[in-house]
Amino acid sequence: MAWLTLILAGLLEAFGVAMINQLQVKRNWKTIVLLVTGFGASLLLLGYSLRFLPLGTAYAIWTGIGVVGGTLIGMVFYGESRDWRSLFFIALVLCAVVGLKLVS
Amino acid sequence: MNRNWIKLIFASVLEVFWVIGLAHSHDLWTWIVTIIALIISNYLMITVGQVLPAGTVYAVFVGLGTAGTVISEILFFGESFKWEKIVLILLLLIGIVGLKLVTANKPKKGAES
Asked: Where are the coiled-coil regions (chain A) (predicted)?
């Protein structure tokens, strides 16, 4: 359960970052509300997960999924570059997350 | 050393504080301190990112934040030191830092149009 909420927290963090991108495209209230809700929900879920998982592992995975998710959203929806180096680092983060789940 | 780098290191220390706070807050005051640390930490990181290259700033911030949380969980919260865990966290960090350096330091395409 704590792993599930941690991954969801990371995805919501990525969603919040995407809303920051969206604000630069178009500034409106709906986006601001989504941004605040996304980051808020992300922190609540992270807080919940941290009660059960080791601090360093949980924090690293939360930021990792946030950054990878944010980058993927940027590539798909905001036309950011998809060079092979980015894809390599994304794969590295995902492998490390899976590995951490396996060793803990 | 540049003032902005000192601000960034301070931001990372606060980042570690609020993560510990999220895990261990138990009353109103500890929650208030946690939330204040979270706000100041992000505020400092964003303001430094407007002066120095944003990708590098974020990479350093996350690197120090991760190192800080891993060290505190071992020193203060009785987590055992496991090699395989440290190596995996390092790999994860290399992934984040690499990603930030290849994507975020480039000027955005079409930003001026």
From this structure: none
When CB atoms are compared, the residue of A57, A89, A104 closest to B95 is: A89
* Residue B47 to residue B43: CA distance in whole angstroms: 6
Say yes or no for a CB contact (<8 Å) between B73 and A56.
yes
What is chain B's mean pLDDT, rounded? 88
The C-alpha atoms of residue A98 and residue A61 are separated, in whole angstroms, by 10
In a domain? residue B35 = yes
Domain residue ranges of chain A, discontinuous segments joined by +: 2-103
B85 contacts A103? CB cut-off 8 A: yes
Which portions of chain B are predicted below pLDDT 50? 108-113
Query: What does the DSSP 8-state code read for residue B32?
Result: H
Q: Are the beta carbons of A47 and B22 separated by less than 8 Å?
A: yes
Q: Is the pLDDT of residue A104 over 90?
A: no
